[in-house]
Amino acid sequence: MKRAFDIIIAFSLISLLAIPICFIALLVKLTSRGPILYWSDRVGINNTIFRMPKFRTMLLNTPVVATHLLKNANHYLTPIGGWLRRLSLDELPQLFNILKGEISFVGPRPALFNQNDLIELRTQKGIHRLVPGLTGWAQINGRDDLPIPIKVEYDEYYLHHRSFFFDLKILMMTPGKVFRAEGVKH
Questions:
Q1: 141-148: long-range contacts at Cβ-Cβ below 8 A with a sequence spacing of 24 or more?
Q2: Which residue, of 23, 53, 123, 145, is most buried by count of CB atoms within 10 Å of its CB?
Q3: pTM of the full structure
């Protein structure tokens, strides 16, 4: 049921948001040098690596680390990067990852391939067996503000309490968190 829900909603959103997605792509291209999409290696189900696109919000010379690890991360933002990140519009291309089954709408947010501490903790707790998500219980409870051990506690709670209705609750809470930019540092 979850996979069918993901496919139907992702396809519907891609159709509905095609024009805004193209407009954002054009803005990215017009406001900074480089490609429209940034592709990162992410950790998926069972710790397999997959490629996840985002609209590029950082300059080309940005180190490949989690944004919270950058000194003066705002220095690396493109002219519209902060705006795209605050509203999570940079994540719209991930709707295609949902169609491919690499991520779901709800699940633990996929770690970067080099976030070894997060990957190790999730593996110890069995969280690595879940399909990662576009949003998740940790996302609506703090996002970037959460230290890794607390984030993993939220992921573990989701692991043990997941259900279709819990997913719906998370999905319904996500837009409010996004529009208030809660827990977004950069």
A1: 142/182, 142/183, 143/177, 143/182, 143/183, 143/184, 144/67, 144/68, 144/183, 144/184, 144/185, 144/186, 145/183, 145/185, 146/183, 148/117, 148/118, 148/121
A2: 53
A3: 0.88
Q: Which two tokens stand for residue 93?
A: 């291309």
Domain ranges of the chain: 2-179
- What pLDDT does 185 receive? 52
Nearest to 150 by CA among 158, 132, 138, 133: 138
Q: What one-character DSSP code corresponds to residue 141?
A: G
User: What local confidence, expressed as pLDDT, does residue 181 receive?
Assistant: 66
The rounded distance, in Å, linking the Cα atoms of 178 and 167 is 16
Of 87 and 144, more confident: 87
Residue 129's contacts (CB-CB under 8 Å, 6 or more residues apart) are: 45, 46, 159
Coil vs helix vs strand at 133: strand
